[in-house]
Structure to design on (431 residues):
């Protein structure tokens, strides 16, 4: 839980600009649309409420003007036929269809394989149960777009296989079956298994003890590994890497280009440069000072693939410059590095702090959604009796309002000042 609280404070953002000055980030090409309702259906790995929360985190911070509603519907022990939360028909009728989803993701399989070598009977039951599940979604939520997720791995990198050939080979075979089912039912398929295995292998090369913690019980990934899973799903959904991109021409004292950001009041001084910028997205606030996040950045390419917040300043004289945002020192940078461009997502900025606050709110709301689900499973009274409104629905909706309010873009004051000696606006660097 402590790790969950730490990592819940992350965020993500990105898009591109249409006009030279400002246009809120467009989601063109991204799988999700404004007004979508997304339900993540699955077993205990979905019930952990990590990969689905990280996808929500990315979407809110990357597209803060595009409201999307998210609901987790994972219950431990579930198979394609259901489990402790009821049969699959009971589960869908109670946990999925009332939300009127436009998007449903499904990840099952870990329990369906029985943790034994494969048999024809197991495979036939898996296919039959999955076809029934998908047919029910098609019948009761006919407009919903379906994404099938190849199941996350059983860790056989840091521990020996459970039997010859290994149980993860069964999960990979189930992923192949999932791909065929997605094709049959007109859905999307994303395999979450290979990226997690690759991340464990990278961690194993760094520190075998740390690698074991990525899937501590061999079955349930920790929050860091769930970020790897979220990245795979987001990439499968064509999620853009761009948070924002700003290019300032110091020699001319003007904006050269901006994507997903509004820049104005560019002013050049004798040895300084000032401007105001409002980015229309927020960065994922991964920090090298946080050991788990540093590990994530080491074993994945999530920063490159999903978290590019580029600042480029050309035309500076050689030397070192202090960059401040809203008066806070972000760091000293050489003119040649600013010429190439720096990724502000790598640094502790006000935008990162805002993203962290959004992440905390998302974590709180998703905990409320989980409790709401468990109350329904246990038939507890949520106030929704005799036609009365469900009080927890109103509570969750108020949290969602707070989330999007917290993610609203705000302007920031940027300044570059020469640390020693030379004026701003000299000949462009040739690096």
């Amino acid at each position: 839980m402590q790790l969950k609280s730490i990592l819940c404070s992350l965020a993500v953002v990105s898009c591109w600009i249409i006009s030279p000055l400002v246009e809120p980030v467009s989601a063109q090409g991204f799988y999700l649309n404004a007004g979508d309702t997304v339900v993540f259906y699955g077993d205990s790995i979905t019930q952990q409420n990590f990969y689905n929360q990280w996808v929500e985190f990315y979407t809110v911070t990357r597209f803060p003007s595009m409201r999307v509603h998210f609901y987790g519907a994972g219950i431990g022990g579930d198979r394609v036929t259901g489990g402790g939360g009821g049969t699959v028909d009971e589960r869908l009728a109670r946990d999925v269809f009332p939300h009127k989803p436009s998007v449903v993701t499904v990840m099952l399989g870990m329990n369906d394989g029985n943790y034994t070598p494969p048999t024809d009977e197991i495979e036939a039951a898996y296919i039959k149960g999955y076809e029934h599940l998908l047919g029910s979604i098609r019948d009761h939520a006919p407009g919903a777009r379906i994404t099938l997720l190849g199941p996350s791995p059983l860790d056989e990198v840091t521990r020996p296989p459970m039997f010859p050939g290994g149980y993860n080979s069964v999960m990979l075979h189930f992923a192949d079956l999932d791909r065929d089912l997605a094709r049959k039912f007109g859905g999307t398929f994303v395999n979450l298994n290979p990226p997690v295995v690759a991340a464990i292998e990278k961690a194993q090369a760094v520190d075998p003890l740390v690698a074991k913690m990525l899937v501590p019980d061999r079955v349930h990934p920790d929050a860091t590994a769930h970020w790897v899973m979220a990245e795979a799903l987001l990439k499968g959904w064509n999620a853009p890497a761009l948070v924002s991109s700003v290019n300032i021409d110091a020699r001319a004292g003007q904006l050269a280009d901006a994507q997903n950001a509004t820049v104005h009041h560019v002013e050049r001084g004798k040895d300084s440069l000032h401007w105001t910028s409002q980015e229309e997205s927020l960065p994922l606030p991964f920090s090298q000072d946080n050991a788990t996040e540093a590990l994530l950045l080491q074993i994945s390419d999530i920063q490159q693939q999903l978290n590019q917040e580029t600042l480029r300043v050309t035309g500076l004289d050689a030397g070192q410059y202090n960059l401040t945002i809203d008066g806070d020192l972000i760091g000293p940078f050489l003119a040649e590095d600013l010429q190439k461009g720096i990724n502000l997502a790598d640094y502790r900025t006000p935008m990162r702090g805002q993203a962290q606050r959004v992440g905390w709110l998302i974590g709180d709301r998703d905990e409320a959604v989980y409790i709401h689900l468990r109350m329904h499973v246990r038939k507890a009274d949520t106030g929704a009796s005799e036609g009365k409104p469900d009080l927890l629905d109103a509570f969750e909706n108020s949290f969602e309002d707070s989330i999007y309010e917290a993610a609203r873009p705000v302007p920031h004051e940027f300044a570059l000042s020469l640390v020693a000696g030379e004026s701003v606006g000299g000949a462009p660097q040739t690096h």
Notes: The CA atoms of residues 196 and 228 lie 6 Å apart. Residues 32-238 form a domain with the Rossmann fold fold (CATH 3.40.50.1110). The mean pLDDT is 91.
